[in-house]
């Protein structure tokens, strides 16, 4: 199958995001950026070049569709962002940043952005398609994961996040709904709408993210760094194993109050001592007290030998 590629193929314009060694065979894509949004030029790709199928998901200002390139035959996901909505909600810079960051990323645990284009009404991001929905939907349908499967997914998530953090990129919206599952049930990090690059000397205090997964420093609008993603990993692991987020309530403010107080309990009768210890090592109120991302893979929970089968290949699209 012919893969959608850049007209800037094999040119590394962003050396600070060099591919890991096991990805050097994949050509780099730096997309054309949006007329009136980021730059004043675009590639010759148009809406008519794609055949669109079913809706995969939607949000406040974007819809994602399954599609196929009429040129290459490749199946993709296309995120359609309405220009009027992002202008109205002052989100132009957010879309700029999303594309600027996502277009530079190449890792097996990160959804790939192949290309992008625009017309007078919308911006289109052409993305790698993941056929088995997201991890949140998977758990809602099938119940909590056993520890072997959760460990299997967590390793992939941590590897992807180590790649991001090695380039000082913080995701800021790591949730189970932003972890997509491929045909062979591998997990991929998606949605870089809130991601940002932490520059030396910069302070980030923006209140953003998903209530059940954001850290105390984000809720309190204190300085936040890469450690906020580590907190989110703790929330995701808890949810994978227990079936609900650790700070979940019926009201957002009540959830925020629990997050700030670090008010949660680990069902130790349900989890192994290793799983409980990893969760409590990640969900610590002070960022500096949390387990370092680089240490997660060496935690006893992660080095435990698997005793069960991993998810079978399946296709839900």
UniProtKB/TrEMBL annotation:
ATP binds at residue 79. Keywords: ATP-binding, Kinase, Nucleotide-binding, Serine/threonine-protein kinase, Transferase. Its EC number is 2.7.11.1. It catalyses: L-threonyl-[protein] + ATP = O-phospho-L-threonyl-[protein] + ADP + H(+); L-seryl-[protein] + ATP = O-phospho-L-seryl-[protein] + ADP + H(+). The keyword ATP-binding applies. PROSITE patterns: PROTEIN_KINASE_ATP, PROTEIN_KINASE_DOM, PROTEIN_KINASE_TYR. SUPFAM superfamilies: Protein kinase-like (PK-like) (SSF56112). This is non-specific serine/threonine protein kinase. It comes from Cichlidogyrus casuarinus. The lineage of its organism: Eukaryota, Metazoa, Spiralia, Lophotrochozoa, Platyhelminthes.
């Amino acid at each position: 199958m012919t893969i959608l590629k850049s007209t800037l193929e094999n040119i590394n314009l962003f050396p600070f995001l060099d591919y890991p060694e096991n990805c050097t065979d994949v050509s780099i894509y730096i997309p054309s950026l949006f007329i009136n949004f980021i730059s004043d030029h675009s590639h010759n790709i148009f809406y008519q070049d794609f055949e669109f199928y079913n809706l995969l998901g939607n949000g406040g200002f974007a819809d994602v569709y399954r599609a196929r390139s009429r040129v290459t035959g490749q199946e993709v996901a296309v995120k359609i962002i309405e220009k009027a909505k992002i202008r109205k909600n002052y989100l132009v810079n957010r879309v700029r940043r999303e594309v600027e960051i996502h277009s530079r990323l190449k890792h097996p645990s990160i959804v790939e952005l192949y290309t992008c284009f625009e017309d007078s009404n919308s911006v289109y991001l052409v993305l790698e398609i993941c056929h088995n929905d997201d991890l949140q939907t998977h758990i809602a349908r099938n119940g909590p994961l056993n520890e072997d499967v959760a460990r299997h997914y967590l390793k992939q998530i941590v590897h992807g996040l180590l790649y991001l953090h090695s380039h000082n990129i913080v995701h800021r919206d790591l949730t189970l709904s932003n972890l997509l599952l491929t045909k062979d049930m591998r997990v991929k990090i998606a949605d870089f709408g809130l991601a940002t690059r932490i520059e030396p000397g910069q302070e980030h205090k923006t209140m953003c993210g998903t209530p059940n997964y954001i850290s105390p420093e984000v809720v309190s609008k204190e300085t936040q760094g890469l450690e906020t993603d580590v907190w989110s990993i703790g929330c995701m692991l808890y949810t994978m194993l227990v079936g609900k987020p650790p700070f979940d309530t019926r009201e957002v403010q009540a959830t925020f109050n629990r997050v700030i107080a670090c008010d949660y309990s680990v069902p130790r009768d349900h989890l192994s001592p290793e799983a409980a210890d990893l969760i409590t090592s990640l969900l610590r109120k002070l960022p500096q007290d949390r387990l370092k991302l680089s240490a997660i893979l060496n935690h006893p929970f992660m080095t435990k030998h698997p005793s069960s089968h991993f998810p079978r290949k399946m296709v839900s699209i």
